[in-house]
Design brief:
Blueprint (H helix, E strand, L loop, with lengths): L4 H5 L30 H5 L2 H16 L4 H23 L2 H23 L10 H21 L2 H25 L5 H22 L1 H10 L10 H27 L4 E6 L3 E6 L8
Antiparallel strand pairs: 1-2
């Protein structure tokens, strides 16, 4: 639930991190489960982002993946840790730690998409510098002027560009679009949870009071957004990796860790052209 910091002070429940300074507060009541965690369920559900990122890093190192793929999982891990810190404290500097890694991650993913057809062990310096300048510029402008719409518009433009490039790859290559479709499905469900958490917050809070305690976390819809977003980003990294393997002529197969978290296992070494 979006509320200004000033509007929270009167009804604020004291907790370890003090009065929130963030520009956003969600529908979960603060410091109900733990004195040390402002939004308990919105915090722990970030494991749905952190765990796939760690597993992705492990498999990337095992397959000796290119730095761009490793950086993608590092960005995902940074998003999960930043979001954990933000929801745990509801402090503005932690809010930046939540939002800015999303922006930088998009720039990493865009670089990977634009450079999917590049030759092995090659780097597009101009593209990399362009993505770096984009991330740095938006970061500085957002931090200096503290206008949320700057981040939101920039993130939206980057996201739409990624979707357009992904669709183009599906149309122009024989790569399967299943990872991309899973990405869209996860993000659609997650966005629905995000919007409902904002728009029907009073109703959600009421139903939590009448449900058995064990079922109340199921109505923490922003937490479901974290889980869906974590899976969505993971699928999109796999989509980029799948396309990259296609251009590098690598054979690959999708597997699932514990039958849930997806990852790609490269079966053969790259067949490099002379």
């Amino acid at each position: 639930m979006h509320m200004s910091t000033e509007s929270q002070v009167g009804n604020y429940v004291h907790g370890y991190w003090g009065i929130p300074t963030s520009t956003i507060d969600w529908c979960e009541d603060d410091y109900v489960v733990s004195f040390y965690i402002a939004e308990f369920w919105n915090t722990v559900t970030n494991l749905g982002i952190i765990i796939p990122a760690i597993l992705g890093l492990i498999t990337s190192f095992q397959d000796k993946s290119e730095p761009r793929m490793i950086c993608g999982y590092i960005a995902l891990l940074a998003v999960g840790i930043g979001s954990w810190c933000f929801h745990m404290t509801l402090q503005f500097h932690m809010q930046l730690l939540d939002e800015l890694p999303m922006l930088w991650g998009c720039c990493i993913f865009l670089y990977s998409l634009f450079a999917c057809s590049s030759s092995p062990k090659s780097y597009n310096i101009m593209l990399g510098v362009s993505m770096l300048l984009c991330a740095v510029t938006v970061t500085i402008v957002y931090v200096v002027f503290l206008i949320p719409s700057i981040f939101q518009i920039s993130f939206g433009i980057l996201g739409i560009t990624m979707i357009a490039l992904s669709i183009n790859f599906i149309r122009t290559t024989d790569c399967s679009g299943k990872f991309f479709y899973c990405t869209i499905t996860c993000y659609t469900l997650g966005t629905a949870c995000w919007c409902l958490d904002y728009s029907i917050c009073p109703s959600l809070q009421y139903f939590r009071t009448i449900l058995p305690v064990i079922l109340r976390p199921l109505l923490q819809l922003h937490g479901w957004w974290h889980i869906c977003a974590g899976l969505g980003i993971t699928f999109h990294i796999l989509f980029i990796y799948d396309i990259r393997c296609h251009f590098l002529q690598k054979k690959r197969k999708m597997k699932r860790f514990m039958g849930v978290v997806p990852y790609i296992r490269v079966e053969n070494t790259r067949q490099e052209k002379a």
